Give the backbone structure.
Amino acid sequence: EEAWERYGSHPAFAGWYLTQEVGRLQWNIIEVFHELGKFCKELSGGLPTAISPYIEGIQLYDPFRTGVNAGKSVTLPDFEREWNEIMAGITGCVDSISFQDGGCDYSELEDFLSVACYAGKKHGILINTNVEAFDRDMPIRFLPIKWDKMLLKLRAAEKAGVAGATMFEFSHFMSPNSSYFQAHGLNRCYQHYLAGGFEK
């Protein structure tokens, strides 16, 4: 309510991001997304709502365990079943879902996003990818991702049929003003890609 009272009249206030990030059907998340999304829509006259869950795959970083692989990767059939159930329960309250792409292996990303897109069409929810611009394959947490890995993820998302892409996190990992030297090169490669380079 406070955010709406302060900023709701600004033209830049175009919708809501529900910040609860989950990867699976857990913690009464259907009720949380349903109630929060419904509240935000009613408060703002129907402005769109979005969530950005992660794919709980082999690359998922668990700060409470040693190593990157948390040892609890979701299978594709379980992902499909759980997200169908979640989407069925939040239809009309959540308009778009941007799946964080860093949790699963590159070879599995297209399959997970394809399943998500199919479920999204079934339930009337727009599916996007949330491209993580940092590298999970390095012993240091976290450095800007190599361009060829980002391109691989963008192409997998395109093949899966996502509606669009968002990114986490531009200012640290891809900005030409970032303190990470690697971010400057990543930004140049991405600009070249947008201009039609690298044979989209």
About this structure: Helices lie at 2-7, 29-44, 76-90, 106-123, 147-160, 170-173, 181-194. Residues 62 and 70 are 6 Å apart (CA to CA). The mean pLDDT is 88.
